[in-house]
Amino acid sequence: MGTLKFIGPIFIFFFLFNGDLRSQKEVPWSSDFKLQWEDFKGEVPVRAMAAATTASGISYSFSSRSEFGEMVLDFEVQSFFYPTISWFRPELCNDVTLLHEQLHFDISEVFARKMDKEMSETKFTENIKQEVRDIYKRTLKELDDFQRNYDKETDFSRNLEKQKLWQKQIVSLLK
Questions:
Q1: Edge-to-edge strand list for the sheet holding 12-13
Q2: Which residues contact 82 (CB under 8 A, 6 or more apart)?
Q3: What distance lies between CA 174 and its chain's CA centroid?
Q4: Which InterPro entries match (predicted)?
Q5: Number of domains in the chain
Q6: Is residue 77 a part of any domain in this protein?
Q7: Within a domain: 1
Q8: Mean pLDDT (whole number) for 28-53
Q9: Other residues' Cβ atoms within 10 Å of the Cβ of residue 2
Q10: 82 is in which domain, residue-wise?
Q11: Nearest to 63 by CA among 7, 117, 9, 115
């Protein structure tokens, strides 16, 4: 079978970045990198109600081949932060807001790992392209639901007790 490749990001509104990476169009997640306000390079929308928006998401690429009657998949799944479409309003933001945004980016990484695991455990058929797309769509839906729940429960970082609980949960998921 020929090589199939696809790369597709999803944008979730929250943030991340470091060093030479800070000026790139997209920055891959790294445990060594923590977002700073200068990483948010996007323009604040005129009617923006939020204090900040982090654009982060998941991308994947893959190639496949048939070996001894089985489909073999070589793939990569990554999470990214997109500085040029992430923004903040300095008058409304503080260190708690920044931590909240960092966790949004970290949540993207949690779901990139989840997708990676599912792809590595799946026995694909000749319909591999659609099967990979289905895994990606399902992962993005779960990611979006998780992100929305995080914002709702923490009241966008204003509920400090819930924010601390979510931080512990996300840190443990990344271990």
A1: 12-13, 55-67, 70-81, 27-28
A2: 9, 11, 25, 26, 27, 55, 56, 57
A3: 13
A4: DUF922
A5: 1
A6: yes
A7: no
A8: 97
A9: 6
A10: 12-173
A11: 7
